[in-house]
Every structure is written in structure tokens, then in C-alpha cells.
Task: structure prediction
Amino acid sequence: MSDVLKELEGILNVTLPGNLVEEVIKVEEGHFDVMSNVTNAFELMKILREDAGIYHLSTISGVEKDDEFNVCYHIQHRIEDEFREVPINFIITKIDKNKPKTPSMLEFFVAADYYEREIYDFYGIYFENHPFLQRLILPERWPDDVKPMRKEYGWEQIKEITMKITKEGLEEAK
Amino acid sequence: MTEQYRSRFRTLTDGSDAPPGADHHIFIGPQHPWAEEPAHFIIHLKGERVVEADIRIGFNLRGIEKAMENKTWRQNTMLIPRACGICSAVHQNVYVRLVDKLAGVEDQISERARLIRMFSLEAERIHSHILWYGILAHDAGFDTMLHVTWRDREIIMDIVEDFSGNRVNPALMLPGGVKRDIPKEKADRAQPMLDKLIKQVEYHKKVFTEEASIRNRLEDVGVLTKEDAKKVTPNGPTGRGSGLPFDVRKATPYELYDKIDWNLVYYNEGDILATTLVRLDETLESLQICKQILEQLESTQGELLARVKQRIPEGSYFARGEAPRGEDVHYGIANGTDTPERYKIRAPSLGNIDATLKRMDGEYVADMPVILRSYDPCFSCTNRVMIINEVTGEKMILNQDEFARKAIKAKKYNRPFF
Result:
């Protein structure tokens, strides 16, 4: 692991403290997975944003594991002289399934707003210090407690709910 | 950072939480559910100038990500192009590359299969860009250009139909390679058509750069500086028009883009004209890539399809591709069975909304149709606009044509918009 971490530090030209990083995996040449847990993620992202100067956030994905949630920030380290990008998947692990909570990265990336609200919609993960964590994508009538991308809701169940709220909407329109 | 971009954190649609100083509010959309990416723009004005702009999205949630978790990897190959109507090939390309990587067959894909994939991608970029600047000309009140560009677009559509059997959804790719070959007689038939299209696109470029009536509508309008662009992180042509020289084809080369001779296009001005010129130059580049590919196909042989097993081994991969509108991002997790554990798609338009809202700050309301068009939003949903006068409470409902006509008149005769 330490070799890969050193290689990544060489590319970014910063030191990443060992206690903040959980694991670094090299997916392929110039493409890394960086894992960190909920408590350390904000500190580590601060180093990546402010010291390494990473400003491009491609997207954020929510992932449901058996006993925890993961949130993955896909960021790009840009080397402008060479027109090159180094993709980094910044994975926040160990998000508690009963009370899912993780720090918001809105302070570092403006674009994080939409993506975080999307994950809040689909997985019900709460982003701390987000100033406006509200529904973004799901319809207004959608029940608050149903988080459609979680594994507990099957395809048929989602269909039923969709039909139900559509009918309600049509009846109200009459 | 949140203070600077607080326009986003408003939701009320009646304008009652408008920023101080705004006296008119324009509501654009939301529109027909069958249109792609319907969006609801709320523009707060002081007189003729925009104070703030806001957007609400999510009117067309189809649940593709959830649907993919319930289908096999093989079935998803045909579901994934439906994520977008016009850039279907690039979604399929990113997907098949992701599956190739996870299944470990990426070394077995022949050069010929990769060239055919690239041809499909570049043909799509050409027709999407021509479509876009045609509609941009229409929004700017230059309808002749719309008809000229769309007439010429048929050339590339005919080629795509000849090669794949479909006009906009070629669906040529499969994990492990491609479905169909491009035989020599079809390639020979396409070469003179491409030559003709190159001449036509050069003429389009001449019109956009030399014709004063269209140039004045685009130059110095909606300027997004490089500093602002770094904050709001646009991607694709929107970013390249503001001096961010990043194209996924160059940044992390995929398929055979590192072996083909082509130039990265970017401009530093940041106005709408710059993004238009990026797309015009890219169309010419793509046409010349297409010609190179057809020449190389003659001398390249190889199996079209490598075998990929139904069950994909455990793992995750993050793949990107350069769609006509910007970077297309997919993240897939496999769990060892024949269905994906999780599949995430981010289409480029979502990443460009911030930049478009930023462009609107302080601009004239008459420039709104052009600026809204600038990020190529698949935006068939601007067809109704409501304007509310805050003092009198008077409402005025316009459709898209009326809105555009009013904007054109205001610009042409230098008259107030209302």
C-alpha cells in the first residue's frame, strides 16, 4: 500500500497523513481509489482541495454495502500543461446504516450540491453542514420515508408507489 | 462558497423569496415529460438585467439506475443507450468499456472493433454539434442558418443509417467488441459524403465568424471567465470555451484516440461565441478523424467480438468518455453474478448547469435564449414562459417562439423587452 500512496503523493505533490488515509488502491496507470472513513474524510479532502489544488468534481455516487453505506467522490487531478487528468475515486467508508451521516463537501466544490442532494434523495444519507439539504429529483408526492435506491425496495415496490402517486395526482387534477 | 452561489438555495416558484431589488421574475419550464431533461429555470430581473437565476430539475426521473440493477449485464447493453436520446453511442461505449475492464477482456478487443466503435462516437459528435449550432442560430433569430445546418446534417445521418441501420441510436457496441462490421463498399460510399460535409461545415464556420448579425448576438454575451469556470467546473465544450483545455479523449485516452492524429480545441474568451467555435472546430476535427478511421479500416483486420462470460467477477471501475456535451461518467460495481450490484450514470448536462447560471448574472433578458442554449441542454422544454409583473400582479404567458421573437426585437431595435 505504501508504494501506491507514495506514487499518488508524488503525482499530487503533497503528503497525505497516514492516519487519515485508510487505503489506497491503484486501479490502473494514473487512476486511484482513496479510502477514508467518516471522521477523517473532511480533513483529507481539505488537503486534496487546498494543497493539491484539485478543483474538478465529476460526480458523487452512493453505494449500499451489507452493513454500511459508502459515498464515493469522483474527483480529477488536472495537469494543465499536459492536458492530462488523474481520476481519483475518493471513497468514504463506514457510514452507519441506522443513522447515515457524513460531512458535506460543499465548502470545497460548488458542484457537490446537486450530487449530495441526489444521494440524500435516493439513499437518505444526511450531509452535515449542507445549507439546503432538500429534495432535488424525486417527485413532490413521493413518500418521505421511501429511499428508492436502497436494496430493501425492489423494482416492483417502486413501480407500485409510482403508480399510486400518479393516480393521486390525476385525481387531484380532476 | 455558499454565499457566492446562494441563488441555488431558493425553491419557491411564485417568486416570493426573490432576491432584494428584483422586480420581475421569469419562469421557464418545466415542460413535456417526454422531452429530455426538462428543467425549470427561474430568472429574477431588475429592469432588463438578470439579478439571479435559479433552476429546479428532476422532472424526468426514469429510474434507469434502479432498472439496471434488476437486469443482466447483457440486457443492460441495450438499456444504457436510452439514457440519452442524442448521445446514445457514448453511453453505450462507456458502459462496454467498463464491462470489458471488469471482465478482464480489454486486451482481447481487436483494433478493428475499436476503430468501428470510434467511428460511431465521432459520427455522433458531428451530428450532435451540427444540430446544436443550428438551434442556436434559430434562437438568435437566424432561421436560414437552422435550415442550412439541418439540411447538411442529413449527410452524416445517412452515413450512420447506412452503417448501423438506425439514425440516432446506432447501438453498434457490445461488451467484447462490436455487432456489425463496416464493409469496404460502405466505407467507399461514405468517403465522398464526408468530403462534402467538410466543405459545408467550413461554410457554417464562415457564417458564424463573419456574418455580423449572428456574431453580434454571440460575442461578449454570457462571459464565463477561467477563474469562475474553475469554481463552477463546467465540462466539455462549455469548459473548453472558457480556457479549460480538458477533453477526456486527451486527458485519459481510451479506445485508440492516442494513436490517431487530432488536435484539442479550446478557446480562452469564455463567451457564447467561443463555445460555438469550439463546437464548430470540433466538428471539423471529428470529420477528419472519421476519414482517418475509414482509411485505417482497409488495412486493419481482426475478430469483431471477443467472448465475455455472463458472470462478471467482483470489482468496481470508474469509466469516462467524451460525449458531445462533455464528460460522461459511469461507475459500476460487480458482485460476481450476472447483474450489477450498483451502476451510477452522470450525464454531462447536469455538470454544466452551474456554469450556465453563472453566465446569466448581470446579462440582458434578451440574451437569455442564447445563454440557456449554450450548454446544449437537450432543451425541448423552453416552450412556455410566464412573466409576472410584481407591482400590478399582471401575468403574461408566452410560448418559446413568442419569447424568442420578443428577445430578437428587443435586441434588434434596441427596445425594452416588456
